[in-house]
Amino acid sequence: MPEFKTVILFLLTAIAEIVGCYLPYLWLREGKSIWLLVPAACSLALFAWLLSLHPSAAGRVYAAYGGVYIFVAILWLWAVDGIRPTMWDIVGTLVALLGMAIIMFAPRNT
Questions:
Q1: What are the strands, taking DSSP E only, across the chain?
Q2: Of 23, 43, 60, 66, which has the most beta carbons under 10 Å away?
């Protein structure tokens, strides 16, 4: 079950990162309250902490995490921005997730 835990951890990490970046966007681009920077900073701190929970080497985790981030960002595009992903968005997301799975779950000698 470590694969399931890894994927859930990656999903939570991606949500924390996107929220931590989206809140300053709302302040800078949408004229929302500067106080959004407080939960944004907390969300980005949570993002960094969640990344540290993975048992694999940091470089491997960072590389593989990118695939899950792409997946969550495309979901965000659809759910929050209201833009339906194109076929190419979906294909690119699947390629990224395949890359994540290879990096994280391939058999290793070490």
A1: none
A2: 23
